[in-house]
Amino acid sequence: MTEKRIRMRTVFLGGAFTFLFFLLLLRVFWIQTVNAQWLLEKAQLQWERNDTLQPKRGTIFDRNGELLAYTSKAYTVIAKLRPLSKKDEDYVDRAFEAAQKLAPILGMSTDRITKLIEDGKAAKRGQVELRPGGWKIDEDKAEEIAKLAIPGIILYPETKRYYPNDAFAAHVLGYTDLDDKAVMGIEKVFDERLQGTDGKLRVLKDQRGFKLPAAGSEDDFIPARDGDNIYLTIDYQIQNYVEDALNNITKKYKANGISVIVADPHSGEILAMANRPHFSPNKYQDITNWTNFAISNTFEPGSTFKIVTLAAAIEEGAYRNDLTYMSGTYRRDALGPPIRDHNQGKGWGTISYLRGVQESSNVLFTILGYENLGKDKLYEYLQKFGFGQQTGIGLPGEASAELRDKERLYPRDVASMTFGQGVVVTAIQQVAAVSAVANGGELVKPYVVKEIRDAQTGEVIERTERTVKRRVISEETAKQTRDILESVVDEGTGSFYRIEGYHVAGKTGTAQVVGANGRYLANKHIYSFIGFAPKDDPKFVVYVMVDQPNVSNFGGRDIVAPIFKHIMENSLQYKKVSPDLEAETIDVEETDAIAIPDLSGKTPVIAEEMLKQVKLRLKVVGTGSKIVGQYPRPGEEVIAGSVLYVITDKVDEDYLPDFTGQTLREVMEYSSMMGLSLDVHGKGYVVSQNIEEGTRVKRGGQLAVELKPRSNQLEDERITEEEEQQETELEESDEAEEEVSGDVDNQER
User: Which residue from 18, 343, 432, 543 has the fewest beta carbons nearer than 10 Å?
Assistant: First the structure.
């Protein structure tokens, strides 16, 4: 029995061992065949490491290779909080002492750094980054910290994006945050191209962790491909002129916003773009408003929009310089309240279309756009000029400023659109539209990226070419429009924008601001000017827009004109554009007829010397140092001894001259320039006046003069002719034209 039991146990144990051996063989088979790949991968993790090689972000340059944004070495400051061994002394033991040394370098308070370290220790962390001041600091700061040799303070190498010119062209460039995430501008639009492609490095280690030579496969090392370099159309020097002009004006005046765009009207290249308020991409944490007003802000443009109405009317044969109309007010039953000219509806009497453009007459543009063109044709031209759609400039956040549905426009809406009310635009749309006039009639797509180059080879990968969207007006129409816009600068509301030696064409604008309730706000305006030079072959279009400067009773030209002139003058000189306007000379022949010289921009002293050469007398209106207007106009002919009135840039008050012996016309002109109410008695020449010569008079006062015929000029024909003319002058006295350049009531349209 015992022997049998032993035999059974032996058989059982043998079977069990056989079964276990079979299971072992099955497991080995499973491991070596079915699960071999998984095990190999697990093993490789022990002896192999794949490192990702980070590419360098591409650099951004201006059109001429000036550095605008680049990536460089940076360091993050880390505090090691505990030792790795008993003998390890390289850790932060005294938090407050370390914080005292680091605080002035990192720009953080001692308490803040101390708290970061103590909180990290309390949480039993091994280390802590000293943010924000210690995050990605530059090499200079890192060197300062290294010299302190503070135990436990580690400088971890990283990279950081730098903008060497700080706030320069900030809205165009955009920025990347400290995590290298592109946030706005060119950085965001071309993020993928700038990032480059990651590389890979395969490293083998033995059981002790020492590096072993790789097998030599091509897959062992794949180099990173650095990001492409972006070359902008921005010209560093011209952008600098813009930034300087805005810095100077911003210090003096407050405004909700200022935008400036400088463009090449032929190619569509944006040479400069800036806004105020702006920001520093190097300190993006401080940004409170990063809106690029030049492309994202929509507003009613005011009178700069009249350029489009004018060009459309010329193209359709609805405009001629010599046609006349009655200015002041325009009444039609369908329009409701009358359309008024900007001088409280007084107008300038019956004047030519050309004079109406020069005076920026709302009535004229209502006639041109509402009456002559009509709703359908006007709307067609607005679309052709690019309004109601994005320009495609290639920057994020561009608004389309959509046009209102044509079928839902009331007659009043159409009339208002002709002079820039009831229609919203962006600054870049305005630049594109006016560039079409400047370049001969083609709507060209604006752009800011000139080309993309390979960072290693410098080879051009991609280049932006000039893109013509469509022809909007003929070359002949464009030329005529340019000529008229030049006259606006020479003789009309744009006289403050003249530039010595160059033909400048352009248009001023003053737009009312619409409030939240849809009604226009009192004394809230957007002032602007858009102009180009030289007139017949424009190199630059410059647009300046100032939103609600914080000055009461303020003329926008005092802000806008200095900005425009600084940018345009310097840009023309920088690009060595030859003057196309000959220097002023006075050529007096021995004749009774003397041509009046142009005295605008001169000082009264210089003007007096010039007039002495041609035997003319000078009467100065105002107390300023610069002449801004004159009567008679330049080019008109007078006889020797005639009086020439000039108005200066300060005309709030003046010393009344002696009018004895002067004509009614001369007295009327002075009264108009000074805003005096004129009371006339008699006909002929002035023999007396109610205010004595030399008395200080202010604008809005009243002047009375008595006129009588000269006894030696009582011949019938002469008297009849003279009296008839002066009767006409009396009848038209309430419609007397303001012949001076610029609006003497400090209003600019």
Answer: 18
User: In this structure, are residues 671 and 704 in contact, taking their beta carbons and an 8 Å threshold?
Assistant: no
Q: Please state, in angstroms and rounded to a whole number, the distance separating the CA atoms of residues 614 and 594.
A: 7
Instruction: Provide CB contacts within 8 A for 636, sequence distance 6+.
Output: 595, 596
Report residue 585: phi and psi, to 5°. -130, 155
**pTM (2 d.p.):** 0.72
Give the CATH number for residue 222: 3.90.1310.10
Task: Express each pLDDT in 58-82 by its tens digit.
Answer: 999 999 999 999 998 899 999 999 8
Name the nearest CA neighbour of 331 among 366, 355, 358, 305. Answer: 366
- Helix boundaries (H) for 440-527: 475-491
Angle at 693 between CA 688 and CA 696, to 5 degrees: 130
Give how far the C-alpha of residue 118 lies from the chain's centroid of Cα atoms, to the nearest Å: 49
Query: How would DSSP label each residue in 342-357?
Result: TTTT---SEEEHHHHH
Same domain membership, residue 200 and residue 246: no
Is 541:438 a contact under the CB 8 Å cutoff?
Answer: yes
Provide the CATH number for the domain around residue 711.
Answer: 3.30.10.20
**Polymer length in residues for the chain:** 749
pLDDT tens digits, 248-287: 888 778 888 999 999 999 999 999 999 999 999 998 877 8
Query: Would you say residue 600 lies in a domain?
Result: yes
- Per-residue confidence band for 725, with pLDDT thresholds at 50, 70 and 90: very low
Kind of pairing between the strands at 175-176 and 153-162: unpaired
pLDDT at 682 over 80: no
CB 78 within 8 A of CB 130: yes
Query: Annotated catalytic sites, by residue?
Result: 303
